[in-house]
Amino acid sequence: MSAVPRTTGIEEFLAMPEDGNRHEFVRGEVRSMPPPSGVHGKIEAILQRLIGSYLDDRARALGWQLEHGFGAQDRLVGFLAGGEFGLQFSLPDDPNQIRGADCVYVPAEQWAQVNWDGQGYFPAVPWLVIEVISPSDSAADIAEKVQDYLAGGARSVWCVYPQKRTIHVYSEDAPPRFLLKTATLTDDDILPGFAAPLAWIFN
Asked: Which is deepest, 6, 80, 87, 160, by most CB within 10 Å?
């Protein structure tokens, strides 16, 4: 993350040109980050594949078939998105926060409550947010991001540490879970029945 965030307004932030970096707008500051390393993207893709397979199975159990289209699947079981999925949400101390999440899952129940046409930033915090942590991410920045997501409406936040091969799971109403490389990742509140050994993710 940039060592010296720049203070600006929301209009100026939204008008910023593309420069190859990632930018977030947090408490009036533009926070800039370089593109992530290759392993970062690979872990994102593995998680999306595992969760996507789980959602396919759930949708088929509800009668969905491929010829029905993925829009129909989304309406049944929600949607998964990644690659710095842009979120814009409001907190008591930050009415125009903009974050780019590595991976998110929006269950059908939540999506039905959100007015979004697919354009612009998603106007809420998804119930599940996944962040793949880079070596340059400070503990303070990670803690702030987790708290902001939970305060904004997330029910679960996964922080994935590729170098340490661990995953920290934070929930709105339960103590944090710290999963080591021999553990199995589950989240019964958001993804009932989902189970992925960490060995699958990090190998």
From this structure: 160
For residue 185, count other CB atoms closer than 10 A to its CB: 20
What phi, psi does 44 have (nearest 5°)? -55, -45
Q: Specify whether domain 36-202 bears CATH 3.40.1350.10.
A: no
Rounded to whole angstroms, what are the CA distances from 12 to 15, 16, 89, 130, 147? 5, 6, 17, 28, 26
Residue 177's contacts (CB-CB under 8 Å, 6 or more residues apart) are 168, 169
Span 86-95, pLDDT tens digits = 999 999 999 9
Task: Say which amino acid occupies 35.
Answer: P
**Beta strand pairing call for 94-106 and 29-33:** unpaired
CB 153 within 8 A of CB 89: yes
